[in-house]
Write a structure and sequence with these properties.
Blueprint (H helix, E strand, L loop, with lengths): L2 E6 L3 H10 L6 E3 L16 E8 L7 E5 L2 E2 L3 E2 L4 H17 L6 E4 L13 E7 L2 H4 L2 H20 L6 E6 L6 H8 L3 E7 L7 H8 L5 E4 L6 H12 L5 E3 L1
Parallel strand pairs: 1-2, 1-3, 3-8, 4-7, 9-10, 9-11, 11-12
Antiparallel strand pairs: 4-8, 5-6
Helix pairs in contact: 1-4, 2-4
Length: 241
Amino acid sequence: MKFLFISSNLDPASKNIASFLNEYFEVFKVEKELLNVKKEDLPKASYYIFLSKHRSSSNQPSLTVHVPGLLDRDVCSASAVLNSLLLNNIYNFYRKSNLNGFNVCFEVVHHTPTDIDKPTCFVEIGSTEKEWKDERLGKIMADAIVKTVEQIESGDYDEKIKAVGYGGNHYAPKFTKLCLEGKYYFSYLIPKYANVSENVLKKIVKSDVERLLIDWKGSKSEGRKKMIEFFKSYNIDYERV
């Protein structure tokens, strides 16, 4: 089992996290933006974790986790356990700090790369240069990654339903809450406004998903119907949340 941690020397948040993670693991550094990295640029691994900055128009201080991909084209492989342990560990280390005012959350699937066929996720510090360079945040993220790797390598985590979430907005508040409450592990999160290709849906249902969770109030009937019918055709049931 090999974890690859990818850092960009062009990204201040990436360098910040890597500076603390280097104490525990070797970090693979690239001289390009992380969104431009392709599978061919990386050595083979069992899991890929990208260390990244996060931008938002609101400049809301944030610590986020998400699977990369373009829902209308292709998505990277995902692990519900990896994503959810990371989010919970980030949240727990954040709560132990003297920081406040941060949104610790999932993001829905978005942006490149799309071609990595082993479980892949981004962990991100947002949303301005102030946060990107804050060493306290770099340490929180690194500590959370170390804890997550230890849990996966040892198998020291609870069994929970592995779910795909559909509905809601970019920051997936309903699914973030359910994950932090310890009720589910989440892999792919799909917002209500997404145009999801059939090829992407086929890839998603063939992952480790056991249930489709639908943010009922945060989605439209047409989208819900499409998702329910597709997942049911693969014998995957749905649940309203």
